[in-house]
Amino acid sequence: MTRTVDSTIDRPERRLRAEERTLPRHGMNHLDPLAQRTLAELAGESAGAARVFARHGLDFCCGGRIPLAEACAKQGLDPRALLRELAAEERGDDAPQTWSSQPLTELVQHIVTRYHAPLLPEIARLLTMAQRVEKVHAGKESCPRGLAAELAEWSESLALHLRKEEDVLFPLIAQDAGPRAASTIKTLETEHDDHAKALARIRALTDDHVPPTEACGTWRALYAGLAEFELELMRHVHLENHVLYPRALQSTMRTSPPDTCASATKAVPR
Predict the structure, then answer these.
(1) What pLDDT is stored for residue 19 in this prediction?
(2) Which residues contact 25 (CB under 8 A, 6 or more apart)?
(3) How many CA atoms lie within 13 A of 109 on its CB side?
(4) Mean pLDDT over residues 65-85, rounded?
(5) What angle do CA 228, 247, 56 make, to 5 degrees?
(6) Is the pTM of this model over 0.85?
(7) Domain boundaries, the chain
């Protein structure tokens, strides 16, 4: 899976101020403004923020509405060190795609192509690898027992979730009827929370995606794939929860032909 990152704010608006780029020379007062911003805001502005948050197990999609400082306190992280890490990642990023003002139909097409289309094939690939690892290494104490069953069950719920979006929500957006989808969006957001819980269970089964020393190549590739899948899913959910859904609910004017979205909603096999 590729590492293209979605964002909602142009590079000129998201650049860290000079004092935030030289964090070691300043006290905590200089960190307060950035540390009080939410994880979702920061992930939406900086391509590297999503990678940093994922490395530290910070949920910037479903749990992204809390300030960075609060999230660090809950995880026992040093906010100053995390902000330095964010600044380092931000310096190397290319300008991100902006979705705060693009036509909603284009955003929907992007979500279907970039996230929906590869999601189920990828989890099927990971499931096959998990089944193999559990079978071959069943006698090892470090074997991730139950991982394959977790992925199989989750795959079914993900497929149903994508169909709700593609068969119900996205056609409403194509008809410029997003505000009528409030109940559907609420359901989808609840399901996003369930996906976050599934990610947490998988982390628990895989020791935070860290393979044991005796892991074979397939085992290591499985954990690397799961870590990448988690990051991609969090970017996916972040874009929907914090950009698509709010914009759809506020939409009063269609900016693309009605059938544009409908033609794009074919990623999930029927």
Answers:
(1) 35
(2) none
(3) 15
(4) 90
(5) 30
(6) no
(7) 6-98, 104-264
